[in-house]
Amino acid sequence: MKSGLNIIINVLLLCCSLWACEVEKPSSLVPVLDVSEATEITRSAALVSCNVYLTGTEKITTFDLHYGTTQNVEKLIECDASVNSVSVLLTDLIPNTTYYYCFEVGNSYSTHKSCMFSFTTLPNQTPIITDLQLLGRGPVSLLFQFELKDDGGEPVLSTGLYCQEKDGKMQRFTFDMQNNVCSGRIDMLKPYTEYTIQGFAENNIGETKGEEYVFHTEDVVEVVIPGTLAEILGDYKYDYSTLAVSGLLNGTDILTLREMLGRKIDGMPTDGKMTYLDLTDASIVSGGKSYNASRFTQNDVISYGMFSDCSFLQKLVLPYDAKKIEEGAFENCISLKEIQIPVTAVEVLPSLGCVGLEEIDVAAGNTNYSSYMGSLYDYTHATLLWYPAGREENELPFADNIERIGAYAFQNCKLTNLDLPQTIKEIGIAAFSFSSLEVLQLPDLVKTVPTALFQGSDRLTTVKLGRETGVLYNYCFDGCPLEHLYVPVRDFPPKCMDDTFVGMEELFSSCVLHVPSGCKKLYSQSNYWGKFQHIVDDIMD
What we know:
The chain is mostly beta strands. It is built from five helices and 42 strands. The strands form nine sheets. Strands 19, 20, 21, 22, 24, 26 and 28 form a seven-stranded parallel sheet that branches. Strands 33-35-37-39-41-42 form a six-stranded parallel sheet. Strands 3, 4, 6, 7 and 8 form a five-stranded antiparallel sheet that branches. Helix 5 links the parallel strand 41 (about 510-515) and strand 42.
């Protein structure tokens, strides 16, 4: 009996002991650290990660990363102790170096370190460059660029171009790099010759060469002494239908070219029939004779009238170093289909009468201008400067962020209808003059109808002004057979200048003026708008 009682007592004591152990389970158990191998290792960086799993109820109070180039891991980074998972990007590391690291966590009772891990950064290497990009090519020259994608971890010592004539000696040309772009121009190449070129970049580790590019040079007439082109060509100047010229060209040389293009200095025709002129490798310099009436050349300027009335000219490649193209430089070049704007151009103005022009191309690398759908824009695509009048299309796509249309931009254009984006805020003088437009609505943000905006547009019957129109300048409808003019300005009629409707007084009797509903009396009492004999207030808000 006593033995059985002892057994029962022992069982009860064991149960109580087990219950006490369960109730008094310690809260300070050591956390489990799960450290990952380093990833995203480069020459100077690596990503290390750690997950923490709590085995007790005590929260961690410290969470640290220890790392260094020895197992003493002398550097420390404090991590966020409120999270259970961290990833740390180590930067400014030394290339080709082994690093050690571990994580350490702690709570109010103890700390615990993980095992030691290691990784080795990548060594420095030769530079990495992009493929060679050709920005332009003249008969005996080449314009190129490439980008430095990675310096390899070492300072770049030199960049440039290798150029080898077929079965000839390799030449090495160095060019400075700006903003990680190496660009340059090589010239004085041989005509009718095959060349192989490669970009290169060099650092202390070694040299990297880009992909090979093979091209052929063409024939070219070289003018070493300005004013000698006629002497070089001799009696054969009218035999050329195409021509590439390099060297220095003054007014005397331009006069020779104009004669080859079919025009004398007095505008009379010659026997010249040249249709294609490549001046990529030429430079315009001051001096020499007048090339057109009393016009003289200026350094790096395509001057007014330089190629005007050259009716046979179909394609013109301008000098690489031309900086300015003046208004009227190609005036009345009726056969001109394509103009190439050089990379160095900082000012370009349209020419009138280029009724056959279909394409305006801008050399890659120009930081002032760009080409979009064949039209000339500023570099940001905010301003359309010149629409080729020879294009035949029913719709014109505009650049997405267009805000302005430049002066004379659509002069002589063949478009009959044009849907102007509402983002346009400003339009330059005579922008649509002598066009084939029949109907046009101006965007609401355009506050000014500039001088001669529609002058000479003899098919224009309907114009709708914007809701914020404030003023109409002189001659804006001169020569337009307007039948309907919509002016949706409610608060007060837009201001007209003394010559807004000069020469077009018949509009007052033949054109219907449409104004906002309820504003007929307001417009009828205006000094200028009141002259319209047919005013209807049918524009609804």
